[in-house]
Specification:
The complex is a heterodimer of chains A (479) and B (227). The radius of gyration of chain A is 23 Å and the shape is globular. Chain A folds into two domains: 322 residues, Alpha-Beta Barrel (TIM Barrel); 31 residues, no CATH class. A nine-stranded mixed beta sheet of chain A has the order 1-7-20-19-16-14-12-11-10. Chain A has a four-stranded mixed beta sheet with strand order 3-4-2-13. Helix content of chain A is 46%, strand content 14%. In chain B, α5 links the parallel β1 and β2. Chain B contains nine helices and five strands. Chain B has two domains: 98 residues, Methionine synthase domain (Methyltransferase, Methionine Synthase (B12-binding Domains), Chain A, domain 1, Orthogonal Bundle); 120 residues, 3-Layer(aba) Sandwich (Rossmann fold). The chains are: A alpha/beta (479), B alpha/beta (227). Chains A and B meet through α15 of A and α4 and α5 of B.
């Protein structure tokens, strides 16, 4: 059973007072420090909006009222649709959904266990695999295909996904033309440009450069996507100790300003356009200045980010569930589980990178998608919490069974046993003898088997007429 | 309701594990509909033979339940509910069985041995055996060998099922078998053992006739040894 969109928010690393301090400090940064915008078109929108723009340094500053005014134009909920309506999700409030993340260059080969460059074929296979994993709700393009020329990467990535999964497809983008073509592709699938706006099957991610900067290319892309009116994410990636202060509070301040700057840009370009407040905040290991993805601080920062987004009533894109391990081992499990759990309990709306990612986000592993799917099932059960009412308290049943009895054959047990407990599909709960008789396999080997089973059983393809039209109208797609 | 419909409904209610009309069952909207009890009574009223009721209603239903359990669709409480519904139907059928000249499948005495108070597993085995059509005498827990010997002598059962959870009380199973031997009753009854710490090796060591890993295995074992 797949649980999605459950209400989180029981875990609150920030007090109300701390949230307010971060908010007030953020307004001071917007007013006194500002952020640099190196995209001409983005900058012109800020000029039009009446922000203070320094034409030499390209630094944009705003008074608090203006910041709040533009933020209030952003919708508090964003709908992401799948080709199958069953996969539609509504981000907002403290509802929790999960997804894959990107973008990794390498993949651990399922047959050799060796790391190699990921190919377009890998992307198609992962899309198919994730389509069959019930606790992963959104398919974010996880890998960069090394066998495709740079100008054709966007169309091929989106096509590979849309042709292999009915879940919503979110992805990072690389070229302005690629964005246009990917949108065109989704319009063909939806039937019309209007229908795509009504049911956005795809969404796109750019990024700001922490600290306090929107880059030229990403700025241009952000403007283009915002004009197109498709859901957009502009994550900030402050790294505690390197591109943000070493203190988590200081990192949160940078993260908040940078995330809000992206939101502000979308709203000055196209008021009301669907945008998701986004955090990829993490820290650097200052022993060697390495970016890390499996740190517990990353969990704390992104859980706190959920609270900030809830404070602004904006949907939230969090980053969690990764590991820095090079192989699918115990570290892979505990790092992924801890950060995912913290963010989910905090009510992060969309936890991206929650499946498959390892080695500083450089690699993905087929097995890890399956293992993370299990982790996320458990995490969602934790988010669901404990329902206490007359029937779940079971006083009457306890009275009937009495001292020394048992509940195995109570009707009450049958009524609730499937919904009260999470039943793992990958975890081993066999007796030792039985486990040995079945080959004595560890979680990774069982995951390998699940991968091949899902890939052989699970099939989805675009309707052939739609496929034909896309291939004839959109250049550069390798079929 | 035709006779075919009656038997078919009985089978479905066994699969659903519904004892009587007050049972909710697994699917929505079953409350108030006749359950195993009402359908068995109706079948007797309609003159359907007890043999047909058991074979095509109860046993056929329990076979499906077994398949669903094997396929991991059904959990242990589902099996128990079905076994309970079947047991209830068997109770209703009992007086009619004798009349029709159909004998019970066999008599089984079960007990958790002396010193051990754990009886959930033993209770499940009892329930499943009843569901499979056996007459079950459940002595309870913490039962000393003398008492078991006495019951075996009086009741003359086909099978004796002994249960122990603890490694410290397991040896009491062996002592119980020895007591049966000393009383000259060992050859009159087949002794089956079970419990979390018990193994086939242990069962062989103490001279038991069989070892069941779980309740369903216990029923299979009894069926095999009966033949």
């Amino acid at each position: 059973m797949s649980q999605k969109g459950l209400e989180g928010g029981s875990y609150k690393p920030l007090s109300q007072e701390s949230i307010d301090k971060i908010h007030q400090a953020s307004l001071r940064v917007f007013e006194e420090v500002g952020f640099q915008v190196n995209s001409e078109s983005a900058l012109s929108f800020f000029v039009q909006a009446g922000a203070w723009v320094d034409s030499e340094t390209h630094v944009v500053r705003m008074p608090p009222q203006m910041v709040m005014d533009f933020l209030s134009r952003a919708p508090s909920e964003v709908k992401l649709c799948g080709q199958d309506e069953e996969h539609d999700i509504l981000l907002g409030g403290a509802r929790v959904f999960t997804g894959t993340g990107g973008t990794a260059l390498n993949i651990i080969d399922v047959e050799t266990d060796l790391t190699r460059r990921a190919t377009l074929d890998d992307l198609k296979q992962i899309a198919r695999l994730v389509d069959g994993l019930e606790n992963i709700h959104v398919f974010m393009l996880p890998t960069y295909p090394s066998d495709i020329s740079a100008e054709d990467v966007d169309v091929n990535r989106f096509f590979a996904a849309l042709d292999n999964t009915t879940k919503h497809v979110m992805g990072g983008v690389y070229t302005l033309n690629g964005i246009r073509q990917a949108i065109r592709m989704a319009e063909i699938i939806c039937g019309s440009p209007q229908e795509l706006r009504r049911r956005p099957l795809i969404s796109m991610i750019t990024c700001s450069i922490s600290p306090l900067k929107i880059d030229r290319i990403y700025g241009d892309m952000l403007v283009q996507i915002a004009k197109a009116g498709l859901p957009i994410v502009c994550p900030a990636e402050p790294l505690s100790g390197a591109t943000a202060p070493v203190t988590l509070a200081g990192t949160l301040l940078i993260q908040n300003v940078d995330s809000l700057a992206g939101v502000l840009l979308t709203q000055v370009v196209n008021s009301g356009t669907p945008v998701i407040y986004a955090s990829v905040a993490s820290n650097t290991d200052l022993r060697d200045l390495k970016y890390v993805t499996g740190s517990i601080e990353m969990g704390l920062l992104n859980a706190a980010g959920a609270q900030m987004a809830q404070f602004y009533r904006l949907p939230f894109y969090a980053t969690a569930g990764m590991s820095d391990s090079k192989v699918v081992d115990a570290q892979c499990g505990y790092e992924s589980a801890l950060t995912s759990l913290l963010c989910a309990l905090a009510g992060a709306n969309f936890i991206h990178d929650a499946a498959g990612m390892m080695e500083f986000a450089l690699s993905v592993s087929y097995e890890k998608f399956v293992i993370d799917n299990e982790i996320l099932g458990m995490v969602m059960r934790a988010v669901e919490g404990i329902k206490v009412d007359e029937d779940t308290l079971a006083f009457d049943v306890i009275k009937e069974v009495g001292p020394g009895g048992h509940f195995v054959s109570s009707d009450h047990t049958r009524k609730y046993m499937r919904s009260e407990h999470y039943y793992p599909s990958l975890s081993d709960r066999l007796d030792r003898e039985e486990w040995e008789a079945q080959g004595g396999k560890d979680a990774c080997r069982r995951a390998t088997e699940r991968v091949s089973q899902l890939l052989s059983e699970h099939q989805f393809g675009l309707p052939s007429s739609v496929r034909k039209r896309i291939l004839s109208e959109i250049p550069g797609i390798i079929d | 309701m035709t006779n075919e419909e009656n038997i078919q409904l009985l089978k479905e209610n066994i699969i659903q594990g519904r004892r009587d009309e007050n049972d909710e069952g697994l699917e929505e909207g079953m409350l108030g509909q006749p359950g195993a009890k009402e359908l068995t009574e109706a079948a007797i009223q309609a003159g359907i033979t007890p043999g047909t009721i058991i074979l095509e209603g109860l046993t056929a239903g329990m076979n499906v339940v077994g398949e669903k359990y094997e396929a991991k669709e059904y959990f242990i409480p589902d099996m128990l509910a079905s076994a309970e519904a079947t047991g209830l139907a068997m109770e209703i059928l009992e007086p009619h069985l004798a009349k029709a000249g159909v004998s019970s499948k066999g008599k089984v005495v079960v007990a958790t041995v002396k010193g051990d108070l754990h009886d959930i597993g033993k209770n499940i085995v009892s329930l499943l055996l009843k569901g499979a059509g056996y007459e079950v005498i459940d002595l309870g827990n913490d039962i000393p060998p003398e008492r078991i010997v006495e019951v075996v002598r009086q009741e003359n059962p086909d099978f004796l099922g002994l249960s122990a959870l603890l490694t410290t009380t397991m040896k009491m199973m062996g002592e119980t078998i020895n007591s049966l031997r000393e009383a000259g009753l060992r050859d009159r009854v087949k002794v089956l053992v079970g419990g979390a710490a018990v193994s086939q090796d242990f069962a062989d060591e103490i001279g038991a006739d069989g070892y069941g890993t779980d309740g369903f295995h216990a029923v299979r074992l009894v069926e095999e040894l009966r033949e």
